């Protein structure tokens, strides 16, 4: 039942949660119409306001519901939000002031509620927000002047008890409304923050991933080297380059070249995973394998990798690679380690390819 309400009734009444300002605004319109109805009934029953005030409050109920209808179902959100704001600040506040005890009545509470509502619901409507806030804050000034000049037009509560009752009811209603607005605002703030955090995590993952093979890309290399060195690990870097890759592309097409790259990346990833290492595509047909092992064990792993790759079923036969393996020395710079591995890899190429040098 609770879920049904959340999933069906609320979206029907308030619109999509993805449009938070419209959602909040529709909620305010509906709550506002109920509050006006409740105020009209309470004011009439306990004689807390003039009859004119009660009638205006009653009239506002269908008007607000009509505004909700136009905003929710005919998509006049912005114009209806502005109309409602003007209605509340220019009509409801003055009439409430005059018909409900003037400066000693509960209208200041209403002002506060209106101010918070405008500040929250008009978050994206800068100029209108400022206008509404100014109206809500400044409206008591002319009203106070009118009251001082024409004190007789103000409806005053018959007894101090009735005034206290009215102030208390208004305070509770305003407090409740403020609480709802602030909770809604902070929930939305949390949602937006969670969304931003998720997006930044996704963005970071994407920025560190090679789109073709799914391996980490070169952005991961330096931070990984720095981290492993800081942890004082023994580790080796293997620079791997597929052999005669240009002629594979030329002979069998670029798409087939991509298939070979993906097939190699898969095998490389498996080895890295087994040895708790890191596989990286530097770019083109060039890869790096970082393994937390000594030189000899890394070399053996590379031999296994070469055999594994040769055993991979590729449409146009076996592809090989050449690699240079270097172990990180104490105090060695990242670039120096890479250069040693690169030099060894070129030695392997010169030695006829399908070769690993350490
Ligand atoms: N299919 C495909 N080819 C790529 C990609 N990136 C780079 N290449 C190609 O990889 C080839 C690399 O060629 P070379 O640098 O000459 O090296 P090679 O042919 O492998 O020769 P050796 O390294 O000396 O064995 C070029 O033809 C690039 O166009 C890619 O993402 N997909």
Automatic annotation (TrEMBL):
One of its GO terms (molecular function) is diguanylate cyclase activity. Keywords: Membrane, Transmembrane, Transmembrane helix. Its cofactor is Mg(2+). Residues 233-358 form the GGDEF domain. It comes from the Bacteria. Its EC number is 2.7.7.65. It catalyses: 2 GTP = 3',3'-c-di-GMP + 2 diphosphate. SMART domains: GGDEF. The chain crosses the membrane at residues 27-46, 52-70, 82-99, 105-122, 134-150, 162-181. InterPro entries: Diguanylate_Cyclase (IPR050469), GGDEF_dom (IPR000160), Nucleotide_cyclase (IPR029787), Rev_trsase/Diguanyl_cyclase (IPR043128). This is diguanylate cyclase. It comes from Marinomonas aquiplantarum.
